[in-house]
Amino acid sequence: MTNSQDVTRHLQRGVEEGQAPSDQQLMFDPTTGQLVVKKPSDRSPSPDAVVADQITQDGFFRG
Prior knowledge:
It is a single chain. 32% of the residues lie in helices and 19% in strands. It contains two helices and three strands; from the N terminus they run H-E-E-E-H. The protein has a three-stranded antiparallel beta sheet. The chain is globular and about 30 Å long. It starts with a helix and ends in a 6-residue tail after the last helix.
């Protein structure tokens, strides 16, 4: 599965479940300008990466 598919699936799960999946974190990596999905126990993609799960919970990606 490609990273864009991971991100899409993460967002779909967040909308369906009403909260970010607890087994994954959506992160914005400013070095690449992309969203990535990581397990909470995985290393951050970069030191400046930002967890973006809250915007999913707030409904930013809802249609």
